[in-house]
Amino acid sequence: MVNVRLYNFDKRKNSTKRPDTASGGDLVQGEVKSDFTPLAPVITFNMPDPTAVPTYNYAYIAEFGSRCYFITDWVFVAGLWRATMAVDVLATYQSTIFASQQYVARSKRLPNHDIIDGSYDTLAGASFNTQELSQSALWGADYGQGCFIMSTISYSGANVGAVTYYAMSWLCAQKFFQDLLSSPNWMNISASEISEDLQKALINPLQYVVSCIWIPARWETFIYYNSPMFDGDLAKNIKLGWWSFDLPTGEGTGEYTVRRLHNPTFYSQEGGTPDRISANFTFTIQKHPQAATRGAWLNMAPNSKYTLTFLPFGVFDLDTTDIKNATFIRGVVTMHAYTGDATLQLFVDNSNNAILTVTTNLAIPVPVGQIAMNLGNLDNALLAGAAAGVSEVASMYSAHASAAASQTSGRMGGTTVSGSHGGSHKSGKF
Amino acid sequence: MPNESIFPTRRAALGLDSQGLTVFGGEDALVNVEPLQEKARAALGDIVGGVLQVANKALPAALAACASVQFRGTQGSFMAFVTPIRLTARFISISDDRSDFIGYPCERVIALGQLAGFTLCENATISISGTVIEEEAIEDLLNKGVFIET
Fold it and tell me: Residue B80 has what DSSP assignment?
Protein backbone atom coordinates (compact mmCIF):
# COMPACT_ATOMS: atom_id res chain seq x y z
CA MET A 1 0.00 0.00 0.00
CA VAL A 2 1.14 3.52 -0.62
CA ASN A 3 -0.09 6.86 0.69
CA VAL A 4 -1.07 9.12 -2.15
CA ARG A 5 -2.23 12.70 -1.97
CA LEU A 6 -4.72 13.27 -4.73
CA TYR A 7 -5.51 16.77 -6.00
CA ASN A 8 -7.77 18.62 -8.33
CA PHE A 9 -4.96 20.87 -9.39
CA ASP A 10 -4.85 23.33 -12.28
CA LYS A 11 -1.43 23.72 -13.81
CA ARG A 12 0.19 23.78 -17.20
CA LYS A 13 2.24 20.76 -18.07
CA ASN A 14 5.36 22.89 -18.48
CA SER A 15 4.96 24.73 -15.22
CA THR A 16 6.90 24.48 -12.03
CA LYS A 17 3.74 24.96 -10.03
CA ARG A 18 3.46 22.62 -7.11
CA PRO A 19 0.51 21.89 -4.78
CA ASP A 20 0.64 21.94 -1.02
CA THR A 21 2.23 18.60 -0.46
CA ALA A 22 2.15 18.80 3.30
CA SER A 23 -1.53 19.07 3.92
CA GLY A 24 -3.31 19.73 0.66
CA GLY A 25 -5.43 17.36 -1.36
CA ASP A 26 -6.98 14.09 -0.16
CA LEU A 27 -4.72 11.57 1.36
CA VAL A 28 -5.77 8.20 -0.03
CA GLN A 29 -4.23 4.77 0.13
CA GLY A 30 -3.54 3.01 -3.09
CA GLU A 31 -2.03 -0.19 -4.26
CA VAL A 32 0.73 -0.46 -6.79
CA LYS A 33 1.15 -3.33 -9.12
CA SER A 34 4.02 -5.62 -8.45
CA ASP A 35 6.01 -4.22 -11.35
CA PHE A 36 6.15 -0.46 -11.52
CA THR A 37 8.44 2.50 -12.16
CA PRO A 38 8.37 5.59 -9.97
CA LEU A 39 8.45 7.73 -13.10
CA ALA A 40 5.17 6.31 -14.40
CA PRO A 41 3.40 4.32 -11.70
CA VAL A 42 -0.02 2.74 -12.04
CA ILE A 43 -1.93 2.74 -8.76
CA THR A 44 -5.28 1.19 -7.95
CA PHE A 45 -7.74 2.95 -5.59
CA ASN A 46 -10.81 1.71 -3.84
CA MET A 47 -13.01 4.77 -4.08
CA PRO A 48 -15.95 5.26 -1.68
CA ASP A 49 -18.30 5.62 -4.62
CA PRO A 50 -17.02 3.35 -7.32
CA THR A 51 -19.75 4.48 -9.69
CA ALA A 52 -18.37 8.02 -9.77
CA VAL A 53 -15.49 8.75 -12.05
CA PRO A 54 -12.67 10.28 -10.00
CA THR A 55 -11.90 13.91 -10.78
CA TYR A 56 -8.38 13.93 -9.35
CA ASN A 57 -5.76 14.96 -11.88
CA TYR A 58 -2.65 15.30 -9.77
CA ALA A 59 -0.89 13.31 -7.13
CA TYR A 60 1.96 13.50 -4.70
CA ILE A 61 3.63 10.43 -3.30
CA ALA A 62 6.19 11.08 -0.61
CA GLU A 63 7.23 7.49 -0.57
CA PHE A 64 8.31 7.61 -4.19
CA GLY A 65 11.02 10.17 -3.59
CA SER A 66 8.57 13.02 -2.95
CA ARG A 67 7.58 13.03 -6.54
CA CYS A 68 4.66 14.85 -8.05
CA TYR A 69 2.61 13.21 -10.76
CA PHE A 70 0.15 14.05 -13.42
CA ILE A 71 -2.70 11.58 -13.48
CA THR A 72 -3.02 10.92 -17.15
CA ASP A 73 -5.91 8.44 -17.06
CA TRP A 74 -8.40 6.60 -14.88
CA VAL A 75 -9.48 3.04 -15.69
CA PHE A 76 -12.29 1.19 -13.87
CA VAL A 77 -11.31 -2.42 -13.39
CA ALA A 78 -13.29 -4.95 -11.32
CA GLY A 79 -14.94 -2.34 -9.12
CA LEU A 80 -11.68 -0.45 -8.55
CA TRP A 81 -10.25 2.70 -10.15
CA ARG A 82 -6.75 2.46 -11.61
CA ALA A 83 -4.81 5.65 -12.09
CA THR A 84 -2.06 5.96 -14.66
CA MET A 85 0.52 8.56 -13.58
CA ALA A 86 3.51 10.40 -15.09
CA VAL A 87 6.11 12.13 -13.03
CA ASP A 88 6.02 15.94 -13.06
CA VAL A 89 9.73 16.70 -13.06
CA LEU A 90 9.32 20.46 -12.93
CA ALA A 91 7.28 20.34 -9.74
CA THR A 92 9.21 17.47 -8.23
CA TYR A 93 12.57 19.24 -8.62
CA GLN A 94 11.22 22.75 -8.31
CA SER A 95 13.68 23.89 -5.65
CA THR A 96 16.65 22.57 -7.58
CA ILE A 97 15.44 24.24 -10.73
CA PHE A 98 14.87 27.53 -8.94
CA ALA A 99 18.34 27.47 -7.52
CA SER A 100 20.02 26.73 -10.83
CA GLN A 101 21.71 29.44 -12.88
CA GLN A 102 20.67 29.29 -16.50
CA TYR A 103 21.16 31.37 -19.59
CA VAL A 104 17.69 32.74 -20.10
CA ALA A 105 16.86 33.65 -23.67
CA ARG A 106 13.37 34.88 -23.00
CA SER A 107 11.59 35.84 -19.85
CA LYS A 108 8.34 37.43 -18.91
CA ARG A 109 9.70 38.81 -15.68
CA LEU A 110 13.08 40.09 -16.76
CA PRO A 111 12.78 41.57 -20.22
CA ASN A 112 15.50 43.45 -22.05
CA HIS A 113 13.50 45.80 -24.21
CA ASP A 114 16.55 46.93 -26.11
CA ILE A 115 16.76 43.59 -27.86
CA ILE A 116 14.77 43.36 -31.04
CA ASP A 117 12.07 40.77 -30.68
CA GLY A 118 11.69 38.89 -33.89
CA SER A 119 8.88 36.76 -32.58
CA TYR A 120 6.22 39.14 -33.74
CA ASP A 121 4.93 39.69 -37.22
CA THR A 122 4.78 43.21 -38.63
CA LEU A 123 1.51 44.55 -39.86
CA ALA A 124 1.04 46.00 -43.30
CA GLY A 125 0.89 49.77 -43.51
CA ALA A 126 2.64 52.46 -41.57
CA SER A 127 1.86 55.54 -39.56
CA PHE A 128 3.78 58.77 -39.93
CA ASN A 129 4.67 61.72 -37.79
CA THR A 130 6.27 64.78 -39.33
CA GLN A 131 7.77 67.81 -37.66
CA GLU A 132 8.70 70.86 -39.68
CA LEU A 133 10.86 73.88 -39.19
CA SER A 134 11.04 76.56 -41.82
CA GLN A 135 14.47 77.61 -42.88
CA SER A 136 13.49 81.21 -42.37
CA ALA A 137 12.82 80.33 -38.74
CA LEU A 138 16.19 78.66 -38.57
CA TRP A 139 18.14 81.53 -40.02
CA GLY A 140 15.87 84.30 -38.95
CA ALA A 141 15.57 85.25 -42.59
CA ASP A 142 13.68 84.01 -45.60
CA TYR A 143 15.25 84.21 -49.01
CA GLY A 144 14.23 87.82 -49.35
CA GLN A 145 15.95 88.68 -46.13
CA GLY A 146 19.18 86.85 -46.67
CA CYS A 147 22.19 88.89 -47.49
CA PHE A 148 24.70 89.15 -50.27
CA ILE A 149 28.34 88.60 -49.59
CA MET A 150 30.30 90.40 -52.26
CA SER A 151 34.04 90.22 -52.52
CA THR A 152 36.12 92.69 -54.46
CA ILE A 153 39.70 93.11 -55.44
CA SER A 154 40.74 96.33 -53.89
CA TYR A 155 43.67 98.35 -52.82
CA SER A 156 43.15 98.31 -49.08
CA GLY A 157 41.54 96.59 -46.17
CA ALA A 158 41.59 93.17 -47.75
CA ASN A 159 40.43 90.14 -45.80
CA VAL A 160 42.15 87.41 -47.76
CA GLY A 161 44.94 88.28 -50.15
CA ALA A 162 43.64 91.21 -52.14
CA VAL A 163 40.00 90.38 -51.58
CA THR A 164 37.67 92.31 -49.33
CA TYR A 165 34.29 90.95 -48.29
CA TYR A 166 31.14 92.98 -47.79
CA ALA A 167 27.72 91.97 -46.48
CA MET A 168 24.64 93.80 -47.67
CA SER A 169 20.93 93.26 -47.77
CA TRP A 170 18.98 92.31 -50.85
CA LEU A 171 17.65 95.82 -51.40
CA CYS A 172 21.02 97.33 -50.72
CA ALA A 173 22.63 95.07 -53.30
CA GLN A 174 20.05 96.10 -55.88
CA LYS A 175 20.73 99.74 -55.22
CA PHE A 176 24.45 99.24 -55.30
CA PHE A 177 24.51 97.59 -58.71
CA GLN A 178 22.06 100.12 -60.07
CA ASP A 179 24.16 103.07 -58.95
CA LEU A 180 27.38 101.38 -59.92
CA LEU A 181 26.40 100.74 -63.51
CA SER A 182 24.16 103.69 -64.28
CA SER A 183 26.99 106.21 -64.53
CA PRO A 184 30.77 106.19 -64.28
CA ASN A 185 30.72 109.52 -62.47
CA TRP A 186 31.57 107.86 -59.15
CA MET A 187 35.04 107.18 -60.53
CA ASN A 188 35.64 110.97 -60.76
CA ILE A 189 37.35 110.77 -64.13
CA SER A 190 37.03 114.04 -66.01
CA ALA A 191 35.03 113.73 -69.19
CA SER A 192 37.51 116.09 -70.82
CA GLU A 193 40.21 113.47 -70.32
CA ILE A 194 38.19 110.39 -71.21
CA SER A 195 34.68 110.73 -72.50
CA GLU A 196 31.92 109.01 -70.55
CA ASP A 197 31.30 106.60 -73.38
CA LEU A 198 34.94 105.67 -73.49
CA GLN A 199 34.99 105.22 -69.74
CA LYS A 200 32.10 102.81 -70.04
CA ALA A 201 33.91 100.92 -72.76
CA LEU A 202 37.25 100.82 -71.04
CA ILE A 203 36.29 100.33 -67.42
CA ASN A 204 33.90 97.78 -66.14
CA PRO A 205 33.78 98.00 -62.36
CA LEU A 206 32.36 94.50 -62.12
CA GLN A 207 35.67 93.10 -63.21
CA TYR A 208 36.85 93.84 -59.70
CA VAL A 209 34.05 91.81 -58.19
CA VAL A 210 35.55 88.45 -57.39
CA SER A 211 32.40 86.77 -56.19
CA CYS A 212 28.90 87.56 -55.18
CA ILE A 213 26.89 85.03 -53.23
CA TRP A 214 23.63 84.99 -51.36
CA ILE A 215 23.56 83.34 -47.98
CA PRO A 216 20.53 82.69 -45.79
CA ALA A 217 21.48 85.07 -43.02
CA ARG A 218 20.65 88.63 -42.25
CA TRP A 219 23.32 91.16 -42.96
CA GLU A 220 22.75 92.42 -39.44
CA THR A 221 24.21 89.14 -38.29
CA PHE A 222 27.59 90.64 -38.84
CA ILE A 223 27.90 93.08 -36.06
CA TYR A 224 30.64 95.47 -35.48
CA TYR A 225 33.34 94.66 -33.08
CA ASN A 226 35.08 97.72 -31.88
CA SER A 227 38.35 98.18 -33.65
CA PRO A 228 40.14 101.35 -34.62
CA MET A 229 41.38 99.66 -37.77
CA PHE A 230 38.12 99.97 -39.62
CA ASP A 231 35.53 102.46 -40.63
CA GLY A 232 32.88 101.74 -38.10
CA ASP A 233 29.64 99.86 -37.87
CA LEU A 234 28.68 100.49 -41.46
CA ALA A 235 31.07 100.59 -44.36
CA LYS A 236 31.40 104.05 -45.87
CA ASN A 237 32.65 102.82 -49.19
CA ILE A 238 33.27 99.73 -51.24
CA LYS A 239 36.70 99.37 -52.72
CA LEU A 240 36.75 98.40 -56.38
CA GLY A 241 40.22 98.01 -57.82
CA TRP A 242 41.79 101.46 -57.99
CA TRP A 243 38.58 103.15 -57.06
CA SER A 244 36.37 103.60 -54.08
CA PHE A 245 32.61 103.59 -54.45
CA ASP A 246 31.26 105.88 -51.79
CA LEU A 247 28.16 104.90 -49.89
CA PRO A 248 26.86 108.36 -49.21
CA THR A 249 23.49 107.76 -47.70
CA GLY A 250 24.96 105.60 -45.02
CA GLU A 251 23.77 105.01 -41.57
CA GLY A 252 20.17 105.16 -40.53
CA THR A 253 18.63 105.66 -43.93
CA GLY A 254 17.94 102.05 -44.77
CA GLU A 255 20.13 102.38 -47.81
CA TYR A 256 23.67 101.24 -48.19
CA THR A 257 23.70 99.37 -44.98
CA VAL A 258 26.87 97.54 -45.82
CA ARG A 259 29.20 95.87 -43.42
CA ARG A 260 32.70 94.89 -44.24
CA LEU A 261 33.66 91.46 -43.05
CA HIS A 262 36.92 90.99 -41.38
CA ASN A 263 38.05 88.37 -38.97
CA PRO A 264 39.06 90.60 -36.10
CA THR A 265 36.27 93.04 -36.72
CA PHE A 266 33.05 91.11 -37.16
CA TYR A 267 31.68 88.05 -35.53
CA SER A 268 28.42 86.24 -35.61
CA GLN A 269 25.84 86.82 -32.95
CA GLU A 270 25.44 83.13 -32.25
CA GLY A 271 28.84 81.66 -32.44
CA GLY A 272 31.20 84.41 -31.59
CA THR A 273 33.51 83.22 -34.33
CA PRO A 274 34.45 86.08 -36.61
CA ASP A 275 33.75 84.70 -40.04
CA ARG A 276 31.19 82.06 -39.27
CA ILE A 277 27.47 81.97 -38.73
CA SER A 278 25.83 79.22 -36.77
CA ALA A 279 22.24 78.22 -36.20
CA ASN A 280 20.68 75.55 -34.05
CA PHE A 281 17.47 73.57 -34.22
CA THR A 282 15.93 70.71 -32.31
CA PHE A 283 13.39 68.06 -33.13
CA THR A 284 11.63 65.90 -30.58
CA ILE A 285 12.10 62.23 -31.24
CA GLN A 286 8.66 60.77 -31.67
CA LYS A 287 8.42 57.26 -30.25
CA HIS A 288 6.80 54.22 -31.74
CA PRO A 289 3.20 54.15 -30.52
CA GLN A 290 3.62 50.59 -29.22
CA ALA A 291 7.02 51.12 -27.65
CA ALA A 292 5.74 52.07 -24.23
CA THR A 293 3.99 48.75 -23.75
CA ARG A 294 5.84 46.45 -26.09
CA GLY A 295 9.41 47.52 -25.78
CA ALA A 296 11.84 50.20 -26.80
CA TRP A 297 13.17 47.99 -29.53
CA LEU A 298 10.20 49.15 -31.57
CA ASN A 299 11.90 52.53 -31.78
CA MET A 300 14.53 50.93 -33.93
CA ALA A 301 14.60 49.82 -37.53
CA PRO A 302 12.76 48.28 -39.22
CA ASN A 303 9.76 49.20 -37.09
CA SER A 304 10.78 52.84 -36.84
CA LYS A 305 12.49 54.94 -39.42
CA TYR A 306 13.53 58.57 -39.05
CA THR A 307 14.30 60.70 -42.06
CA LEU A 308 15.77 64.16 -41.81
CA THR A 309 15.21 66.39 -44.81
CA PHE A 310 17.40 69.45 -44.81
CA LEU A 311 18.08 70.91 -48.22
CA PRO A 312 20.54 71.56 -49.65
CA PHE A 313 22.38 69.27 -47.25
CA GLY A 314 20.25 66.38 -48.38
CA VAL A 315 17.90 63.72 -47.09
CA PHE A 316 19.25 61.45 -44.40
CA ASP A 317 17.97 58.28 -42.79
CA LEU A 318 19.06 58.49 -39.19
CA ASP A 319 20.52 55.47 -37.51
CA THR A 320 17.83 54.40 -35.06
CA THR A 321 20.43 52.80 -32.85
CA ASP A 322 21.74 56.27 -32.12
CA ILE A 323 18.42 57.87 -31.30
CA LYS A 324 16.48 55.02 -29.71
CA ASN A 325 16.76 56.43 -26.23
CA ALA A 326 16.95 60.08 -27.22
CA THR A 327 14.44 62.71 -26.28
CA PHE A 328 15.46 65.09 -29.04
CA ILE A 329 18.05 65.60 -31.71
CA ARG A 330 19.93 68.84 -31.95
CA GLY A 331 21.22 70.20 -35.24
CA VAL A 332 24.01 72.73 -35.45
CA VAL A 333 24.74 74.41 -38.75
CA THR A 334 27.92 76.37 -39.12
CA MET A 335 28.43 78.42 -42.25
CA HIS A 336 31.50 80.22 -43.43
CA ALA A 337 30.40 83.69 -44.39
CA TYR A 338 32.95 84.23 -47.13
CA THR A 339 32.08 81.18 -49.16
CA GLY A 340 28.82 79.73 -47.84
CA ASP A 341 30.58 76.45 -47.06
CA ALA A 342 28.55 74.89 -44.29
CA THR A 343 28.61 71.94 -41.96
CA LEU A 344 25.59 70.28 -40.42
CA GLN A 345 26.12 68.25 -37.28
CA LEU A 346 23.46 66.28 -35.46
CA PHE A 347 23.68 65.49 -31.79
CA VAL A 348 21.50 63.42 -29.52
CA ASP A 349 20.09 65.32 -26.57
CA ASN A 350 22.92 67.27 -25.00
CA SER A 351 25.63 64.92 -26.08
CA ASN A 352 28.68 66.26 -27.87
CA ASN A 353 29.07 63.17 -30.00
CA ALA A 354 27.83 63.90 -33.47
CA ILE A 355 25.74 61.15 -35.01
CA LEU A 356 25.80 62.85 -38.40
CA THR A 357 28.19 65.29 -40.00
CA VAL A 358 27.69 66.50 -43.54
CA THR A 359 28.97 69.44 -45.49
CA THR A 360 27.61 71.42 -48.38
CA ASN A 361 27.61 74.93 -49.74
CA LEU A 362 24.61 76.98 -48.72
CA ALA A 363 25.48 79.98 -50.83
CA ILE A 364 23.64 80.77 -54.01
CA PRO A 365 26.07 82.24 -56.52
CA VAL A 366 24.85 85.40 -58.16
CA PRO A 367 25.87 86.07 -61.76
CA VAL A 368 28.30 88.92 -62.11
CA GLY A 369 29.35 90.06 -65.56
CA GLN A 370 32.53 91.59 -66.89
CA ILE A 371 33.64 92.83 -70.25
CA ALA A 372 36.38 90.80 -71.88
CA MET A 373 38.42 92.27 -74.76
CA ASN A 374 39.58 90.23 -77.70
CA LEU A 375 42.41 92.50 -78.81
CA GLY A 376 43.11 90.28 -81.79
CA ASN A 377 40.08 91.85 -83.47
CA LEU A 378 40.91 95.39 -82.46
CA ASP A 379 42.54 96.40 -85.79
CA ASN A 380 39.54 95.37 -87.86
CA ALA A 381 37.21 97.00 -85.43
CA LEU A 382 39.20 100.21 -85.60
CA LEU A 383 38.99 100.14 -89.38
CA ALA A 384 35.29 99.70 -89.18
CA GLY A 385 35.08 102.52 -86.68
CA ALA A 386 37.27 104.78 -88.83
CA ALA A 387 35.22 104.06 -91.92
CA ALA A 388 32.13 105.00 -90.06
CA GLY A 389 33.87 108.16 -88.87
CA VAL A 390 35.01 109.17 -92.36
CA SER A 391 31.58 108.60 -93.69
CA GLU A 392 30.16 110.78 -91.00
CA VAL A 393 32.68 113.54 -91.72
CA ALA A 394 31.88 113.39 -95.39
CA SER A 395 28.22 113.75 -94.75
CA MET A 396 28.87 116.64 -92.41
CA TYR A 397 31.02 118.40 -94.98
CA SER A 398 28.50 117.78 -97.69
CA ALA A 399 25.80 119.27 -95.59
CA HIS A 400 27.98 122.27 -94.81
CA ALA A 401 28.90 122.88 -98.46
CA SER A 402 25.32 122.57 -99.55
CA ALA A 403 24.37 125.21 -97.05
CA ALA A 404 27.09 127.54 -98.33
CA ALA A 405 26.15 126.99 -101.91
CA SER A 406 22.59 127.80 -101.24
CA GLN A 407 23.67 131.17 -99.90
CA THR A 408 25.71 132.04 -103.05
CA SER A 409 23.76 130.35 -105.74
CA GLY A 410 22.33 133.58 -107.16
CA ARG A 411 25.74 134.99 -108.04
CA MET A 412 27.91 131.92 -108.44
CA GLY A 413 25.51 129.97 -110.55
CA GLY A 414 25.64 127.24 -107.95
CA THR A 415 28.70 125.55 -106.47
CA THR A 416 28.78 121.87 -105.88
CA VAL A 417 31.44 119.86 -104.24
CA SER A 418 32.08 116.29 -105.10
CA GLY A 419 34.38 113.78 -103.61
CA SER A 420 35.87 113.69 -100.21
CA HIS A 421 38.48 116.06 -98.95
CA GLY A 422 41.92 114.98 -99.99
CA GLY A 423 40.41 113.44 -103.02
CA SER A 424 41.30 109.94 -102.07
CA HIS A 425 39.97 107.26 -99.82
CA LYS A 426 42.59 105.80 -97.62
CA SER A 427 42.56 102.14 -97.12
CA GLY A 428 44.70 99.73 -95.24
CA LYS A 429 45.54 99.21 -91.61
CA PHE A 430 46.17 102.01 -89.22
CA MET B 1 51.91 142.24 -103.65
CA PRO B 2 49.12 140.46 -105.43
CA ASN B 3 45.65 141.78 -105.24
CA GLU B 4 43.84 139.78 -102.57
CA SER B 5 40.76 139.74 -104.72
CA ILE B 6 42.68 138.31 -107.66
CA PHE B 7 44.48 135.43 -105.89
CA PRO B 8 41.43 133.54 -104.93
CA THR B 9 40.01 134.30 -108.33
CA ARG B 10 43.04 132.66 -109.95
CA ARG B 11 42.67 129.66 -107.74
CA ALA B 12 39.09 129.58 -108.72
CA ALA B 13 40.13 129.87 -112.37
CA LEU B 14 42.28 126.83 -111.83
CA GLY B 15 39.25 125.12 -110.42
CA LEU B 16 40.60 125.09 -106.85
CA ASP B 17 39.35 126.77 -103.74
CA SER B 18 41.38 127.66 -100.66
CA GLN B 19 41.07 124.12 -99.33
CA GLY B 20 42.23 122.58 -102.58
CA LEU B 21 38.80 121.49 -103.52
CA THR B 22 37.61 121.58 -107.08
CA VAL B 23 35.19 124.38 -107.72
CA PHE B 24 32.90 124.34 -110.68
CA GLY B 25 31.69 127.54 -112.24
CA GLY B 26 34.77 129.34 -110.94
CA GLU B 27 34.35 132.38 -113.15
CA ASP B 28 31.15 133.27 -111.42
CA ALA B 29 32.97 133.20 -108.11
CA LEU B 30 34.88 136.34 -108.95
CA VAL B 31 32.10 138.18 -107.33
CA ASN B 32 32.20 138.54 -103.55
CA VAL B 33 35.13 136.18 -102.70
CA GLU B 34 35.88 137.15 -99.07
CA PRO B 35 32.68 135.78 -97.57
CA LEU B 36 33.46 132.51 -99.31
CA GLN B 37 36.85 132.34 -97.65
CA GLU B 38 35.31 132.83 -94.24
CA LYS B 39 32.78 130.16 -94.92
CA ALA B 40 35.54 127.87 -96.15
CA ARG B 41 37.53 128.42 -92.98
CA ALA B 42 34.43 127.75 -90.93
CA ALA B 43 33.83 124.61 -92.90
CA LEU B 44 37.41 123.54 -92.36
CA GLY B 45 37.04 124.06 -88.64
CA ASP B 46 33.88 122.04 -88.62
CA ILE B 47 35.55 119.25 -90.53
CA VAL B 48 38.55 119.11 -88.22
CA GLY B 49 36.25 119.09 -85.23
CA GLY B 50 34.15 116.43 -86.85
CA VAL B 51 37.19 114.26 -87.51
CA LEU B 52 38.25 114.51 -83.89
CA GLN B 53 34.74 113.84 -82.73
CA VAL B 54 34.33 110.84 -84.95
CA ALA B 55 37.76 109.54 -84.03
CA ASN B 56 36.74 109.87 -80.43
CA LYS B 57 33.75 107.72 -81.19
CA ALA B 58 35.63 105.25 -83.31
CA LEU B 59 37.81 103.97 -80.47
CA PRO B 60 35.03 103.07 -78.08
CA ALA B 61 33.05 101.68 -80.97
CA ALA B 62 35.97 99.50 -81.88
CA LEU B 63 36.53 98.46 -78.30
CA ALA B 64 32.88 97.70 -77.90
CA ALA B 65 33.00 95.56 -81.01
CA CYS B 66 35.86 93.57 -79.53
CA ALA B 67 34.22 93.15 -76.13
CA SER B 68 32.25 90.22 -74.98
CA VAL B 69 30.46 89.75 -71.70
CA GLN B 70 31.65 87.01 -69.44
CA PHE B 71 29.69 85.84 -66.44
CA ARG B 72 31.03 84.78 -63.14
CA GLY B 73 28.73 82.69 -61.01
CA THR B 74 25.59 80.83 -61.88
CA GLN B 75 21.95 81.51 -61.39
CA GLY B 76 21.26 79.75 -58.14
CA SER B 77 17.98 78.34 -56.98
CA PHE B 78 16.22 79.28 -53.81
CA MET B 79 14.14 76.12 -53.85
CA ALA B 80 16.33 74.51 -51.24
CA PHE B 81 15.56 77.35 -48.88
CA VAL B 82 11.80 77.29 -49.25
CA THR B 83 11.75 73.59 -48.41
CA PRO B 84 11.27 73.26 -44.68
CA ILE B 85 13.53 71.17 -42.53
CA ARG B 86 11.61 68.02 -41.73
CA LEU B 87 11.97 65.12 -39.42
CA THR B 88 9.65 62.38 -40.57
CA ALA B 89 9.08 59.31 -38.45
CA ARG B 90 7.56 56.19 -39.95
CA PHE B 91 6.25 53.48 -37.66
CA ILE B 92 5.25 49.94 -38.49
CA SER B 93 3.12 48.15 -35.91
CA ILE B 94 3.48 44.58 -34.79
CA SER B 95 0.96 41.88 -34.01
CA ASP B 96 -0.79 41.49 -30.66
CA ASP B 97 1.14 41.03 -27.49
CA ARG B 98 1.64 37.43 -26.43
CA SER B 99 4.44 37.93 -23.99
CA ASP B 100 2.50 35.85 -21.44
CA PHE B 101 3.20 32.85 -23.61
CA ILE B 102 6.59 33.65 -25.08
CA GLY B 103 8.03 36.26 -22.74
CA TYR B 104 10.43 38.97 -23.82
CA PRO B 105 14.01 38.79 -24.93
CA CYS B 106 16.20 38.56 -21.85
CA GLU B 107 19.60 37.13 -22.76
CA ARG B 108 20.92 36.97 -19.24
CA VAL B 109 22.36 34.34 -16.93
CA ILE B 110 20.25 34.28 -13.82
CA ALA B 111 18.87 31.98 -11.14
CA LEU B 112 15.48 30.79 -12.33
CA GLY B 113 13.98 31.35 -8.91
CA GLN B 114 14.28 35.08 -9.48
CA LEU B 115 11.99 34.89 -12.43
CA ALA B 116 8.32 34.37 -12.93
CA GLY B 117 6.09 33.55 -15.80
CA PHE B 118 7.30 32.21 -19.09
CA THR B 119 11.00 31.46 -19.16
CA LEU B 120 12.98 30.02 -22.01
CA CYS B 121 16.52 28.85 -21.42
CA GLU B 122 19.26 28.19 -23.87
CA ASN B 123 21.48 25.13 -23.46
CA ALA B 124 20.11 24.48 -20.01
CA THR B 125 21.95 22.03 -17.83
CA ILE B 126 20.85 20.91 -14.41
CA SER B 127 21.94 18.48 -11.79
CA ILE B 128 19.21 16.77 -9.74
CA SER B 129 18.90 13.91 -7.30
CA GLY B 130 16.66 12.02 -9.71
CA THR B 131 17.23 9.83 -12.67
CA VAL B 132 19.00 10.81 -15.87
CA ILE B 133 15.71 10.52 -17.67
CA GLU B 134 14.24 13.10 -15.33
CA GLU B 135 17.29 15.28 -15.70
CA GLU B 136 17.07 15.21 -19.47
CA ALA B 137 13.36 15.83 -19.26
CA ILE B 138 13.95 18.95 -17.17
CA GLU B 139 16.64 20.27 -19.51
CA ASP B 140 14.43 19.62 -22.50
CA LEU B 141 11.55 21.47 -20.89
CA LEU B 142 13.71 24.43 -19.90
CA ASN B 143 14.99 24.72 -23.47
CA LYS B 144 11.46 24.65 -24.82
CA GLY B 145 10.11 27.10 -22.27
CA VAL B 146 8.54 26.72 -18.86
CA PHE B 147 6.36 28.79 -16.60
CA ILE B 148 8.08 29.67 -13.39
CA GLU B 149 5.41 29.38 -10.74
CA THR B 150 5.38 28.39 -7.11
Answer: H
